[in-house]
Amino acid sequence: MSYDNSETTPVEHSESRGVDYAPQERLPSPLRPLIDNDRLRFGLEVVPWLALFTFFVFLPLAAIFIWSVAIEEPFGMELGFTLDNYRNFVDSYRLSVFWTTVKEGLLQVALALLFGFPIAYYAGIRKRHSPYTFPLLLLFAIPFLTSYILRTLSWIAFLGSDGVINTVLMMVGLISEPLGWLLYSTFAVRLSLMASYLPFMIFPAWLAMSRIDDEILQASADIGGSPLATVRHIVLPLSLPGLVIGSVFVFVGVLGESVVPVVLGGGNISLVATVIDNAVNSLRLPLASAISAIVLLFAIGLVLVWDYVFGLDKVGEI
């Protein structure tokens, strides 16, 4: 009996086991034990992300809650503990603005679903294989290539007394004088918000619908399912994750909206972000932090309630 005394190199041995250790073999000898250390490798993978989360998420949130209980002074604050900032929030004006913001957020979610779902359905289901679908969807993203303030100011030229709408309506003889309620009104604010946040509903819904298998849609048609039945029993359940994400984007966006009510509202509507902005400009940082903390906790509470009622693990099931 003969024996093969030839030595197997580490690279050849690793290849025989299906594992490629070639990168480790190219490292200097002192560094190889570091790469083989599972704890160290786990730390190198986790610590950078943990540091980013700490500096950009945890510390700012911690500062908000710490400042929210600080003692307010005429030109600043003193770190301490007081609930006066939260009590100041529960006055008639600020609390009314908060509930106005919540109702406006829910209204914008409803409008985004009303107009965004058909667009996403047309692009993601009806015309999913068309080469022109994605370029047409990009048209909704073009306004985001410009400044947000510039986009808001452009509504003045569109809705003003000498704007496009009034000019066209007067030219065709439908009105004899400009419509004053188009600009500096609740209508102008809602129209601008809907135009701003509609893409945040369209794109998640379109992505969810585009992932639905063609065979599922074809099976529904083969068993005699009408387009409406297919939408109700197939498309809607499977696209629900995208619709939920879009709803969160729209609602949270409205909670943080402060520019549109000031520029287009004409004092007819105020949102909670405007109250926070005014508090910051008045150097009332504890009050601004308290309101921000309440808004944040309210948004988190809504997600938890939705999870309790519907169950996040059931989203997307037929």
From TrEMBL:
<dbReference type="GO" id="GO:0005886">
    <property type="term" value="C:plasma membrane"/>
</dbReference>
<dbReference type="GO" id="GO:0055085">
    <property type="term" value="P:transmembrane transport"/>
</dbReference>
<comment type="similarity">
    <text>Belongs to the binding-protein-dependent transport system permease family. CysTW subfamily.</text>
</comment>
<dbReference type="InterPro" id="IPR000515">
    <property type="entry name" value="MetI-like"/>
</dbReference>
<feature type="transmembrane region" description="Helical">
    <location>
        <begin position="49"/>
        <end position="70"/>
    </location>
</feature>
<feature type="transmembrane region" description="Helical">
    <location>
        <begin position="164"/>
        <end position="184"/>
    </location>
</feature>
<keyword id="KW-0472">Membrane</keyword>
<feature type="transmembrane region" description="Helical">
    <location>
        <begin position="191"/>
        <end position="209"/>
    </location>
</feature>
<keyword id="KW-1003">Cell membrane</keyword>
<feature type="domain" description="ABC transmembrane type-1">
    <location>
        <begin position="98"/>
        <end position="306"/>
    </location>
</feature>
<keyword id="KW-1133">Transmembrane helix</keyword>
<keyword id="KW-0812">Transmembrane</keyword>
<feature type="transmembrane region" description="Helical">
    <location>
        <begin position="288"/>
        <end position="310"/>
    </location>
</feature>
<feature type="transmembrane region" description="Helical">
    <location>
        <begin position="105"/>
        <end position="124"/>
    </location>
</feature>
<feature type="transmembrane region" description="Helical">
    <location>
        <begin position="259"/>
        <end position="276"/>
    </location>
</feature>
<keyword id="KW-0813">Transport</keyword>
<feature type="transmembrane region" description="Helical">
    <location>
        <begin position="229"/>
        <end position="252"/>
    </location>
</feature>
<feature type="transmembrane region" description="Helical">
    <location>
        <begin position="136"/>
        <end position="158"/>
    </location>
</feature>
<protein>
    <submittedName>
        <fullName>Putative spermidine/putrescine transport system permease protein/spermidine/putrescine transport system permease protein</fullName>
    </submittedName>
</protein>
<dbReference type="InterPro" id="IPR035906">
    <property type="entry name" value="MetI-like_sf"/>
</dbReference>
<feature type="region of interest" description="Disordered">
    <location>
        <begin position="1"/>
        <end position="23"/>
    </location>
</feature>
